[in-house]
Task: structure prediction
Amino acid sequence: MSRNSKNAPRLPWTEPTYSGNLRSYRRNLHEYRKACRLAATVEPWQCPTCRVTWPGVTKRGATRVGCPDPKCRSKARSVAASEQGRNRNPSLGRDVVVSIRNMYRPHEHGYKTIARFHGIDPSTVRDIVLGRTHKED
Result:
């Protein structure tokens, strides 16, 4: 794999630098070269969000699942949550909201316990108890 080629994937890792410990440097250099050899043999992976081509493996040799760019990873998680409806408060009936408010007792029945009972997210229970959402008419 030529690093000057336009179609070659960008390497998300860099060559190790010598920091005074020869044994550690040699080990890191060996891992770096091994990862580069492995990346050259595996088909590149293209991020569906940012469209950047990366090696098909990580530095440790595992199959690449996500983009190494933290900004892109965050955006991808947010998009996936929106598509799956995980970042929306469910519309709950009035009887469920009243039940949640009545069940909540600090240090006895917390958000997680009530959320498990009703099958909703603990943050939704917190928002209902604190009055941030599902306000009374």
